[in-house]
Amino acid sequence: QLQLVESGGGLVQPGGSLRLSCAASGFTLDPYVIHWFRQAPGKEREGVSCISSSGTSTKHADSVKGRFTISRDNAKNTVYLQMNSLKPEDTAIYYCAASLYYGLGVTDFDYWGQGTQVTVSS
Q1: Nearest CA to 52 among 28, 82, 79?
Q2: Is residue 73 predicted with pLDDT exceeding 70?
Q3: Beta bridge partners of 51
Q4: Are strands 116-120 and 10-12 parallel, antiparallel or unpaired?
Q5: Residue range 37-62: average pLDDT?
Q6: Could you give the CA distance from residue 9 to residue 69 in angstroms, rounded to a whole number?
Q7: Is the pLDDT of residue 1 over 80?
Q8: What is the band of 25 on the pLDDT scale with cuts at 50, 70, 90?
Q9: CA–CA separation, 61 vs 47, rounded Å?
Q10: Residue 79's closest CA among 103, 102, 98, 106?
Q11: From residue 47, how far is each of 31, 38, 122 by CA, in Å?
Q12: pLDDT confidence of 62, banded at 50, 70, 90?
């Protein structure tokens, strides 16, 4: 199945920054709303951010507003998640996914990635 490929995760100290990338494999991202969501041990999956196909509109969960920024570069077929002021509670596996729907509660995706681990710890 075609998928998205995430990269950029790693270990970072509280207050640090990471930039995640999401690149399409075998298809174009242009028609799709792109979502970032995360899954942490003992927690339900949380929709973090999404961006419209044009890049004009974005949404961010309250838990990350002011700290995370989603963006896209359709010429590079890539979507980014800039994460600043990271907190231990941001520790999770981060996934990107492509959907025809816009919103933080979307769960039906046409394409998705296998995730990248983000660990925030001293």
Answers
A1: 79
A2: yes
A3: 34, 58
A4: parallel
A5: 96
A6: 15
A7: no
A8: confident
A9: 7
A10: 98
A11: 20, 7, 25
A12: very high
Residue 37, pLDDT > 70, answer yes
Residue that has been written with the tokens 């590079």 in this structure: 76
Task: Dihedral sign for Cα 41, 42, 48, 50, please.
Answer: positive
Per DSSP, what are the bridge partners of residue 30? none
pLDDT in the model for residue 3: 83
- Average of per-residue pLDDT values in the chain: 96
Cα-based torsion angle of the residue sequence 68, 24, 95, 45 in order, rounded to the nearest 10 degrees: 100
Q: Determine the Cα angle at 109 with ends 70 and 21, to 5°.
A: 30
Cα–Cα distances in Å, from 37 out to 29, 45, 56? Answer: 17, 7, 20
